[in-house]
Amino acid sequence: MSFIQVQDLRTDRFAEIDELAAQWRADTAGRRTLLHEQVYVDRNDPQHFVIINGFDSYESAMVNSHLPETDALASRLGPMVSELSYADLEPVATHDTRLELAEAFRSAVAASDASGPAWADDVEFVGMFPHAIVKASGPDGLTRLLAEDAPARTFDVWDVQPTPTGFAAEYAWRTTGATSYLSVGTVLATVTDGRISRVLCTCAGSWDAAAEAEIMGVTAGASS
Questions:
Q1: pLDDT band for position 220 (cuts 50, 70, 90)
Q2: Where in the chain does DSSP place strands (E)?
Q3: Domains and their CATH numbers in the chain
Q4: Rounded-to-integer distance, Cα 176 and Cα 110, Å
């Protein structure tokens, strides 16, 4: 998110507020610019709530604020809350452990070596391939699986997005060796306690140059 709005409030009528918010989401479907909302309650004060709303930009947030349904919601919420305050925040620095772990995964696949601190001791790998499902457990098991497939790989595509539980990636990688194979697919990783604990990898197929040319509609050996 490039812009977030934080609402800090007190209320003893949160269940009613939650119902009104659900109705607002239904009424503004396809028009609201709110991308993400998180609601937190204070562990030490059950009437203290913090709401974080995520938007693409400040301008996008203003579009959302000016919806008539937003004005109507605000007027109904007024009597239900106390000590309401707002903060409009723009990022100045970002660090995401999930992206760091995604890079560790890419490096492991590139080198056929899953050693290092990125992996849970009991990490589980499941590969769903066109003609087989393969599994490996632990960093050593994953290293063996990668090395048996190819000594190394290079990447044409590695497009990563964090998820609430880890990260997802679209990939296209090429094996090294006497014959190079192109594999394309997706990776869904689970992160637990700051380490990769599970990986689900789907693959559309591993194609040599001739198969790639036929399937992808490209000339074997051509570069873009």
A1: very low
A2: 3-10, 36-42, 45-55, 82-89, 119-129, 132-137, 153-163, 166-175, 182-192, 195-207
A3: 3-89 (3.30.70.100), 97-216 (3.10.450.50)
A4: 10
